[in-house]
Amino acid sequence: MLEKALRGNKSYFTWIGFLLVLVGMGFSFYLRQLSYGLGITGMSRNVSWGLYIGQFTFLVGVAASAVMLVLPYYLHNYKVFGKITILGEFLAVAAVTMCLTFIVVDLGRPDRAFNVLLYPTPNSVLFWDMVVLNGYLFLNIVVGWTVLEAEAKSAPPPKWVKPLIYLSIPWAVSIHTVTAFLYAGLPGRSFWLSAIMAPRFLASAFAAGPALLIMICLFLRKYTKFDAGWEAIQSLAKIVTYAMIISVFFVLCELFTVFYSQIPEDMNHFRYLFFGLHGHDGLVPWMWASTVLAMLSLVLMINPKTRNSPGTLAMGCVCVFFSLWIEKGITLVLTGYIPSPLETITQYHPTVPEIGIVIGVWALGFLILSILYKVALTVKTESV
Amino acid sequence: MDETRRTFLKVAGLSVLGFGAKPVVDAVAGTGQSKFERDPKALNGKRWAMVVDQKKCLDAKEGCKECVLACNYAHNVPDFGNPKDEVKWIWQTSYEHAFPGQENPYIEGFVKDSLKGLPFTVLCNHCDNPPCVRVCPVKATFRRPDGIVQMDYHRCIGCRFCMAACPFGARNLNWRDPRPFIKKENPEFPTRTRGVVEKCNFCAERLDVGKIPACVEACKEKALVFGDLEDPNSEVRALLRTHPSIQRKPQLGTRPQVYYIL
Ligand code: SF4
Ligand code: SF4
Q1: Fewer CB within 10 Å of terminal CB in chain A, N or C?
Q2: Number of the ligand closest to the Cα of B252
């Protein structure tokens, strides 16, 4: 089936070529990082995780959100999602691949990455994260591919995939829960030390992932022969709306606890984030951008009129996506380190090579996504 | 030596035995035992700990940094000359950064007047319940039976989970190759590569040959005292018995084993 990705029109190949250039650029920066060390990034002793781990965290959410299609379709027999479930699964494949790549580029000694398998350590959450992410990648490749192959042959999917599909549902929840536990169990990092971290992660994931899918569906509807169906897009939009409301609600819960209890250690992180602390305010513009985008998205998504029209719906989804990307991809990780547990403030500024590598990994993800979608859409449009 | 390696050697010896290669076993295991025997001079403790007696620092010469310098030399700690790449095992810091959350409006005055505003010496606390060990995905950080929290530089993958987990900022990544930045190299201790984490090891390598930690030895005023907490007759126990002491961030439950007497 993969050969279907080799045929396409000019704009398809221009797009692929463009992504390849970006991947190449990212890779050349990565080679520089390999020879110099992680000091080439903006990370430091006090802010020891940065953009890489932020992107990783955000993308785990995007990956997990496939379940928002799989669950209604397979568990509730919601036929409307039949056409796009595969898009969710392949999005998960691309997103998890990006996650794993971000982990590898973040390692100080990537040559030793396999130590995680050689010395399995069940008391480490990172060990479990590796297990669940790889498992999820495997599940989605197998399920997506098998179901699609069956469709290409106009045959029902083989029976053995059903259990795998059902397994993938709790598994999706597990990847984001375990990823939240990376943060939520560390003494002395009060910004992350919150029982609501995993629910918050899930809520924002179920908003950001489907928002991206809506944007993709709207794009495909406009520029290709593939139409996901307006009803499917509308159902997704409702999922995004509720998830976004819950996500904002959870953040407000955090704010209440922190500011009503007035424990200085807990408040300082949020102060730094929203207003700046002792004259350091590197994340303030980002946080307010994220806040404004979130408010705007709620207005656009809750109001049925704007949600029901493709133009404003697309805008709403863009707002959701970027608001949450800022929140999880940038501020969540960094603010955990600022101020440090010793109450010092070290700010973080990503470097050019670091941003280049980030763009390269995203391009790699989009490359995988484009190829997989090309295959899937060719099968779908041919079989109609 | 690391327990797992010891087990590995045993297992390796046994599996060779399994193949019936008797002569090899004799060569490897038969006489090999003496090779891994502890130095008879080695210091043995059940729970190594340190007491920092801040008042003693009052007698030191101005700007005394003997403990820090001794450690830097003993462990080939690089000096990058910038805060972003900084690697430090033991350092001096102000009261508010040593004991955050334990400030009050008057202690500042006390530190300034009664303690001459001298900085506090801080290092890895070799916690009894170390979060850094809990999070490490490859057991590159592990706790020895004598309480020392030790690093295996050859196993660390540089994920920096431990740096997020340590509430005392005791851990460092080698953001770049440290070797060109070692002022004066000590051939007795390994240098590290870029991309691995390192921190204070309570001078495990010196204890093994019967020496006390380098910082403790370097402190002429005896402000740093090292010893076995399980031994009721040890100097550390005597100090803790006769003086009120505090720990850093005790509320986090890591059970730090460096105690401070103000
Ligand atoms: S001080 Fe930090 S590095 Fe040292 S044992 Fe405690 S948690 Fe680990
Ligand atoms: S950086 Fe090294 S020591 Fe620290 S958690 Fe990762 S593998 Fe373990």
Answers
A1: C
A2: 1
